[in-house]
Design brief:
heterodimer; A: 312 residues; mainly alpha; MetI-like fold; 71% helix; globular; B: 297 residues; 2 domains; 75% helix; 0% strand; flat
Chain lengths: 312, 297
């Protein structure tokens, strides 16, 4: 079957993809490694004929920047907070959806809606919901407290300065966590519900015959059989979390923080792009490789944990 | 006789158990619906808030006690938003980039997937494995070099800078190859016997059979153009090439001055509307595509 004519033809079919991949995927991988290990590399200086010595100076520099460690901290906080919350909520919603018949499809559609949105656009809506307008300097009065504060005050709580001038770090983080969880739910619900619907009904029938209580059915049948799906949404959740950037731009704008403290909520990805503006291509590449290694490590750990606990 | 008694007793016991569990079941059901209802309201609330805010006057928006339905409906907010953010231009740019990149991307994906699914050549498996391996690497790692490449090609502030680097998606090739593999090889061999060319067979038989996957790819690719933010900001953030997301964020970002939030929300609603319409009509394909991809946009 394999004759020369076919060989030639196959490569012709693949040619456009291969050419584009070589330029925009393979070369970047090689070049990033090259740039990361040349001390203080900058493409503009390299073009002018400057040479750089090989070494790990870029990595040392990146890790010593407070700006970078802050970005790393923000990214970690957002990951650690949003992945468990969104996974638990999605699991509860998926199990609830799976247990009903009427309205199931309607509700399923509603829960999927946040997915078909533009994360910058809806980020602006969340900003409007948390935003205080016309806050007096003493902080006791404002024109509009924002709908979230209105709800808090309705239940007798104190309004919080979530994201305006003078707001604290943790309120800012809460805003982001709320938005990211809202945004992350649809995909997780979709995957988990798909998993639930493929579980063989016989297990549940058997449990019913034995009179197994619901809680036990959930922990001994549903969760173990769903564990590959749970592992999947947790891993993709962490990967997405480590690449968080545009949702923060959506809520806080390109200042990546409240007006009095620009860059406060910057993330790893934001750091990499900022390095492009300062033409520090060596440090940007080093930061990108560190991001890659972190994602790889998190994925490996997750897979290891799943190996022990996931029942395939 | 004794045996019969026993069974009736058992039946009676069963009946008690079933009525008890029935009541329990109803309570649980109510709880489930209550929980789902509350969660659905929370999920929908931002959309509701966007729409009613977009129809208020700025004065009404600034009231200390919020209104849950605008007193005067301000359709003019939409007109102003459309003009302030120059949305017409942004729509046209985004549509152009979306359609061209989707079209080209489909052609490349179909050709490659066909080669991997049906044709035989040396190193096929090794190459396919290598392609899949690149999916592990976060896109941010490519961005720095691609930015330099675009700069060296002198493509800054052009449409090709927005289109060409993202034409090939390994994931879409993988998806379509899986679909092509399900089509029985006998069809291909029969076509060969009839003297049908590969290209004609691909176009007349395989593409129609793989239509659902192709539609999913189209939708995801268009949504990608609609939602992309970082790359356009880096390479083509001028008026002539700006895409919708970048334009939207920049038009209303004014740290010092007053932001007219109702108008801003109107712009957000205009930008969100096409996505919702597409979703409404093509829900099945979107959900199928998304559950397999795991990547937003």
């Amino acid at each position: 079957m394999v004759d020369n004519k076919h060989q030639w033809k196959a490569w012709l079919y693949l040619a456009p993809a291969i050419v584009l991949l070589l330029v925009f995927t393979v070369w970047p991988i090689i070049n990033t490694l090259l740039m990361a290990f040349q001390n203080g590399y900058s493409a503009n200086l390299a073009l002018a004929g400057k040479t750089f010595s090989f070494g790990i100076e870029n990595f040392r520099k990146v890790l010593s920047y407070k700006r970078f460690t802050d970005c790393l901290f923000n990214t970690m906080i957002l990951c650690v907070a949003t992945v468990p919350i969104s996974t638990m909520l999605a699991l509860l919603i998926a199990v609830a959806l799976n247990s009903i018949k009427p309205l199931q499809r309607t509700l399923q559609t509603i829960f999927f809606l946040p997915y078909v949105t533009n994360s910058i656009a809806i980020g602006m809506v969340f900003a409007a919901m948390f935003n205080i307008i016309g806050l007096r300097p003493d902080g006791a009065m404002a024109d509009t407290w924002g709908i979230i504060n209105n709800v808090i005050m309705f239940f007798g709580g104190e309004p919080v300065n979530w994201m305006n001038a003078g707001s604290g770090y943790w309120p800012n983080i809460v805003v982001m966590v709320v938005y990211i969880v809202w945004n992350a739910l649809p995909f997780k619900i979709l995957v988990l519900l798909g998993g639930l619907q493929s579980i063989n009904k016989q297990y549940y029938d058997a449990a019913k015959v034995d009179g197994t209580p619901r809680r036990r059915v959930f922990s001994k049948i549903t969760v173990p059989l769903l564990s590959p799906m749970i592992a999947y949404v947790v891993i993709t959740g962490f990967i997405g979390g480590f690449k968080e950037y545009s949702s923060i731009v959506g809520v806080f704008g390109e200042t990546m923080g409240p007006v009095h403290d620009a860059g406060r909520l910057n993330t790893m990805v934001g750091f990499i792009y900022d390095s492009l503006n300062t033409r520090a291509h060596g440090t940007a590449s080093a930061a990108a490789l560190i991001l890659f290694l972190i994602i790889l490590a998190v994925t490996m750990v997750n897979l290891q944990v799943s190996k022990k606990r996931v029942h395939f | 006789m004794e045996k019969k008694n026993l069974t009736t007793m058992q039946a009676r016991n069963m009946q008690d158990v079933t009525t008890a569990s029935k009541i329990m079941g109803i309570i649980v059901k109510i709880g489930v619906y209550l929980f789902l209802g509350i969660m659905a309201l929370i999920v929908l609330f931002p959309f509701y808030w966007m729409i009613i805010s977009s129809l208020k006057t700025m004065d009404e928006y600034r009231q200390t006690i919020p209104t849950f339905f605008p007193k005067v409906i301000m359709w003019s907010n939409y007109v102003n938003a459309f003009n302030t953010a120059n949305l017409g231009r942004l729509f046209a740019n985004t549509l152009f980039v979306g359609v061209v990149s989707t079209g080209l991307s489909l052609v490349i994906t179909v050709l490659s997937a066909f080669a991997f699914a049906r044709l035989e050549f040396k190193g096929k498996d090794a190459m396919f494995g290598a392609l899949l391996a690149t999916m592990m690497i976060p896109g941010e790692l490519f961005t720095i070099t691609n930015y330099l490449t675009i700069n060296n090609l002198q493509w800054m502030y052009t449409f090709q800078a927005l289109i060409i680097p993202f034409l090939v998606s390994v994931f879409y090739i993988y998806l379509l190859r899986q679909n092509f593999l399900q089509i029985p090889n006998e069809l291909y061999l029969a076509a060969k016997v009839d003297g049908t060319s590969d290209l004609k067979y691909l176009w007349k038989v395989m593409v129609p059979l793989a239509k659902p996957t192709l539609i999913s790819i189209t939708i995801l690719k268009m949504m990608g153009a609609w939602n992309t933010y970082i790359w356009p900001k880096l390479v083509a953030n001028d008026d002539a090439h700006q895409l919708i997301t970048n334009g939207l964020r920049n038009a209303f970002t004014d740290a010092s001055g007053q932001v007219n939030i109702p108008e801003q929300m109107a712009a957000v609603a205009i930008v969100s509307a096409p996505l919702f319409l597409v979703f409404l009509f093509l829900r099945k394909y979107i959900m199928a595509g998304v559950s397999r991809s795991g990547i937003k946009g």
